[in-house]
Design a protein that fits this description.
InterPro entries: Ald_DH/histidinol_DH, Ald_DH_C, Ald_DH_CS_CYS, Ald_DH_N, Aldehyde_DH_dom, Aldehyde_DH_Superfamily. The protein has about 500 residues and is an alpha/beta fold. The chain has 14 helices and 22 strands. Helix 3 packs antiparallel against helix 5, helix 3 packs antiparallel against helix 6 and helix 3 packs across helix 7.
């Protein structure tokens, strides 16, 4: 597709083009990288495995330095024209991309389940998130505004302009391999930037499927690029060091984020980082315990516990500790079923890989060795090599490793506290600060605790803290910058320019 299609007159013909594409039955399973509007093979490939059964889904091409340079240089060339496309037209293309996703919903959800392992229903939730980000950022494209500022000098006028930063490198994780691509790429494209995306090596297929739809939607060559690789060393070096890359945005572990920040600092790149979390849920003695159990249970085991803002520590007041544990256990016994994500009865799927399950196992084993009790679970499941039993741990204490490390698995660890002050001290006793949750029916306490918790998002009597209209990001080592929000959604992808005009009175 070429830039003439981006005029408003061309959108009528664009719709006809897409209808033809749908009629001819396009496939969303691609194994090549997508560079400058072409599907490109590298010199070797790597397998993408279904974590449920270990079976190979596809062999995906591995690209390196040369292909990354071509993608970046192509994106930079495309940026010169893309930045001039009107916000309304950019928004129209994003909406069309979202429409195509809806029309291919079933295939996208199935692919997402196969490569990531999550239940099919949860895959559809992820796609719903995509749609929200498409619609929101498509509309926000037309709301990039500067300011007119009163000048102290009557002979001058002051104003600010917002302009796209340029080529954006995007690095996304495996736990939400579709929605996190759109959460980052939609605002970048809406702002007038171009994108070079490196998806996680465990889950590249969903990103490649989105590239198929972007091409069908009519995005010109070079605007949206996807680089696939098993070893990220070469591609990562280009994304952080190439002088034509002006910004890097990453979601993933704090350890990797620190390396990317350090590498990007050599060229003083603009960075946005959404990193690890060690999120607490505080259950106070005045909480509605049934509400607290319902509010935390489903979220804790969502995506097998593999969410960056998942609850890592349940801090429960001593007076409601036993009641909460008993009711939480009953919910686990009634609802949690391990299995294939394509089975509608499955609630908890496998962990993503051996590294992930080994970490979960080591943290639980260490806690048990130091006196914690596994009321349920506490070991790998016989369901398969990447399945861990949904686990409820009681008598957990701060001297255990899982107090300060993300579990990233289906493990609920319960700690006791005796006072509001102790609960807040324990909650903040971490280098992380992505999200925190509290349950209380005392309005004064909810305000005090919310203001005292060191986190980018606080849920009061809820764990649902992510929306396209809310800024999301972390304090401390949980990140830099914010994504989304009713104000400034595209700020991270824009530069601010001050404009001073003299000689007004002359």
């Amino acid at each position: 597709m070429s830039f003439p299609l981006l005029c408003l007159k061309g959108l009528k013909h664009l719709h006809l083009y897409i209808d033809c594409a749908i009629a001819r039955g396009m496939t969303l399973l691609r194994t090549e990288s997508y560079i400058n509007g072409k599907w490109v093979k590298g010199k070797k490939s790597f397998p993408v495995l279904n974590p449920f059964n270990g079976k190979k889904i596809a062999d995906v091409t591995e690209v390196g330095t040369k292909e990354a340079q071509v993608a970046i240089e192509g994106a930079h060339k495309a940026f010169q024209s893309w930045r001039e496309v009107s916000p309304k037209e950019r928004g129209a293309l994003l909406k069309r991309w979202g429409t195509l996703m809806e029309e291919n919903w079933e295939e996208l959800a199935k692919l997402l389940t196969e490569e990531q392992g999550k239940p099919y229903e949860q895959a559809t939730h992820e796609l719903m998130g995509n749609q929200g980000f498409f619609e929101w950022h498509a509309a926000e494209a037309a709301r990039i505004t500067g300011l007119t500022i009163t000048s102290p000098d009557p002979n001058r006028r002051f104003m600010t302009l917002k302009q796209p930063v340029g080529v954006v490198s995007v690095v996304t994780p495996w736990n939400f391999p579709s929605v996190l691509v759109i959460q980052k790429c939609a605002p970048a494209l809406a702002a007038g930037c171009t994108v070079v995306l490196k998806p996680a090596e465990d889950t590249p297929l969903s990103a490649l499927a989105l590239a198929v739809l972007a091409e069908e939607a009519g995005f010109p060559p070079g605007i949206f690029n996807v680089l696939t690789c098993k070893d990220p060393t070469e591609v990562g070096c280009e994304l952080t060091h190439h002088p034509l890359v002006r910004k890097l945005t990453f979601t993933g572990s704090t350890e990797v984020g620190k390396k990317l920040i350090s590498a990007s600092s050599t060229k003083v790149k603009n960075v946005t980082m959404e990193l690890g979390g060690n999120c607490p849920a505080l259950i106070f003695d005045d909480a509605d315990v049934d509400k607290a159990v319902q509010g935390t249970f489903w979220f804790k085991f969502y995506n097998a516990g593999q969410c960056c803002n998942n609850i890592n520590r349940f801090l429960v007041h001593k007076d409601v500790y036993d009641s909460f544990a008993k009711k939480f256990q009953a919910m686990m016994e009634e609802h949690l079923r391990l299995g294939d994500g394509m089975d509608p009865n499955t609630v908890v799927g496998p962990l993503i890989n051996e590294e992930g399950i080994a970490k979960c196992e080591a943290l639980v084993d260490q806690a048990l060795s130091k006196g914690a009790t596994a009321i349920l679970g506490g070991a790998r499941s016989k369901m398969g090599p990447l399945f861990y039993e949904p686990t409820l741990l009681t008598d957990v204490t701060p001297d255990m490793d899982l107090y300060s490390n993300e579990i990233f698995g289906p493990v609920a660890a319960l700690y006791r506290f005796s006072s509001e002050e102790e609960a807040i001290q324990m909650a903040n006793d971490t280098n992380y600060g992505l999200a925190a949750y509290l349950f209380s029916e005392n309005i004064g306490r909810t305000w005090r605790a919310s203001e005292a918790l060191e986190a980018g998002a606080v849920g009061v009597n809820t764990t649902d803290v992510v929306a396209e209209t809310l800024p999301f990001g972390g304090w401390k080592e949980s990140g830099l910058g914010r994504e989304n929000g009713v104000r400034g959604s595209l700020e991270n992808y824009c530069e601010t320019k001050s404009l001073i005009i003299a000689g007004v009175k002359s």
